[in-house]
Amino acid sequence: MTTTSTRALVTGRRLPKGRLMPRRRREAPAQRPGQRRRQIRESLAGYGFLSPWLIGFFGLTIVPMIYSLYLSFTRYNIFQPPRWVGFDNYVRLFTNDPQFMQSAQITLVYVLVGTPVMLAAALATALLLNYRDKGAGFFRSAFYAPSLIAASVSVAIVWRALFSTDGPVDNTLSFFGIDLGGWVGNPDLVLPAMIILAVWQFGATMVIFLAGLKQIPKELYEAAEMDGANAIQRFRAVTMPMLSPVIFFNLLLGIIGAFQVFASAYIISNGSGGPAGMTNFITLYLYKRGFSDGQMGYAAAIAWVLLVVVAIIAFILFRTQRSWVHYSGDNR
Amino acid sequence: MSTSSFGEPAVQELEHQLDPDTTGTQRRESQPRRKVKRKTWQTIIWFVVLIALTALVLYPLVWLFFATFKPNAEFGQNTGLIPENPTGENYLKVLEGIAGVPMWKFYWNSLVLATAAVVGTVVSSALAAYAFARIQFKGLAVLFAAMIGTLLLPFHVVIIPQYLLFNNLGMIDTFWPLILPKFLATEAFFVFLLVQFMRQMPRDMDEAARIDGAGHVRIFWAIIVPLIKPALITCAIFSFIWAWNDFLGPLLYLTSPENYPLPIALRLYNDQTSSSDYGATVTASFVALIPILVFFVVFQRFLVDGVATQGLKG
């Protein structure tokens, strides 16, 4: 029979069989005289080194976050003090703002299509490069170059030119008998053009995949080959599980990054989010509401919706990682 | 950038010469000939596929380079790669600048902002990373978790309060709102990268230094900083490029054209002249990219290896 002591009741812990009282905590070893002072000194040093970060973390992240949460319950245009309106902004966002609904929809499409396609392109290219070491370095660098500049205004301008009516893409497709016209001015095609821009910057992700592939022990492949596994089976049984932490990492950061696309949408649409609102990504809509229309409270509500959606997706990813992400013992 | 697309066949040639597998001279004795032949074919296909992919990926950049030499009349008619009547006129127009501000001013502004970002980011991130990686203090675990949390935080949640803060401080249309945060290690990526790097450093040396009576400042400066130089360089390059490309920050905080860095100046071209002066727009875009492309060519080892080891995104 198990006996439950009062202490165990309080802490909710059950005692092992045959023990009436919880085991007494082992006495802490007597502190040497200088030790406590040294601990304090260490803490002071720690906070000293950390002070720039701490100021930034509280002054530019935590306090602003709390303030933007407060603002999201107000109407505020900078010139008059914020006026409390309760959940008005949120109610309006979800029931009475078709622009927001469209914005949320195209952002989700962009994230949910663009990120997986980009990851697939990155993984496929990484596998290709991993086949051979010699010569791979050159290609590795060549593919990486676009991801350094993909978010820049210059590239957005190039994209606009490439995908405009009679632009190179349009002309090439016409040559093959596919007449789509310009992509940038076409509500049906501007989102695919944006997704292609996102996929184009697969290089950084590819390099991370490649580094992951290089760390998979060769013996695993040799053992699988000995068991008669073909290339596809080896990929599924060895590569995928061993690479799953890297896939998880890239997926998480890819999704979070994709939610925040701004400059390219702004440039491609001249800041309007057009045509027909199809480049009005959530960040661009937030910018227009807050900084063009001066509806700071409303924009803060949009920001918090974005935060919650990103948090939910991150949470789901972390929860499901147990079922598909394989961590071997030696991983940090 | 343009040279790389032309250089591919040469590289391929070189690889073939360097690689004994493809010429098949070394393995011929030890392995059946058919296997060698199959390997050669696989390698050739491998090169062809990758060169095609490279051409596709780099095409937008190569197109941009050649487009800078197209006269205005040619846009819309000739969308191919090579200009029919190459001209240097676009560059002259871009040098003049826009909205009464000469081009070198935009360049200078970008340079000031990016340099400040490098100094601020490297110094503040290294200090924070040292605390996280090398000092045991109360609250370490909680603060470290919070730092990792900011990695996942969408930046847009804080832009409105930050804007109001800098507005109240009277810093709108100055560089301060763009520079100050860099000195406060707000970019968690760099802190994280340096923590990872510092944790790998063996503890023997700083423990020996401690026994000899060195404090944390001394250990940081004399032991850790020299050891993590490669990681610091990676941070410096990336913070430069990110600051150089930054669009939203300057868009929010800078209002007068003489303060504009390049991305916002490019927006002026894009808005005002997109229909009439395509050549100038495209050329200005290319000119704005030159430092990044130079950085890339010079530092590509650092950039690619930095990404590979630490999982940093471009």
From TrEMBL, chain A:
The chain crosses the membrane at residues 44-67, 108-131, 143-163, 189-213, 246-268, 296-318. Keywords: Cell membrane, Membrane, Transmembrane, Transmembrane helix, Transport. GO terms for cellular component: plasma membrane. Residues 104-317 form the ABC transmembrane type-1 domain. It is found in: Cell membrane. GO terms for biological process: transmembrane transport. SUPFAM superfamilies: MetI-like. InterPro entries: ABC_transporter_permease, MetI-like, MetI-like_sf. It is a multi-pass membrane protein. Belongs to the binding-protein-dependent transport system permease family. This is Sugar ABC transporter permease. It comes from Agromyces rhizosphaerae.
UniProtKB/TrEMBL annotation, chain B:
One of its GO terms (biological process) is transmembrane transport. Residues 1-34 are annotated as: Disordered. InterPro entries: MetI-like, MetI-like_sf. The keyword RNA-binding does not apply. The chain crosses the membrane at residues 43-66, 111-133, 140-163, 175-198, 219-244, 278-299. It is found in: Cell membrane. It comes from the Bacteria. Keywords: Cell membrane, Membrane, Transmembrane, Transmembrane helix, Transport. It holds the Pfam family BPD_transp_1. It is a multi-pass membrane protein. Its main location: membrane. Residues 107-299 form the ABC transmembrane type-1 domain. One of its GO terms (cellular component) is plasma membrane. PROSITE patterns: ABC_TM1. Belongs to the binding-protein-dependent transport system permease family. This is Sugar ABC transporter permease. It comes from Agromyces rhizosphaerae. The lineage of its organism: Bacteria, Bacillati, Actinomycetota, Actinomycetes, Micrococcales.
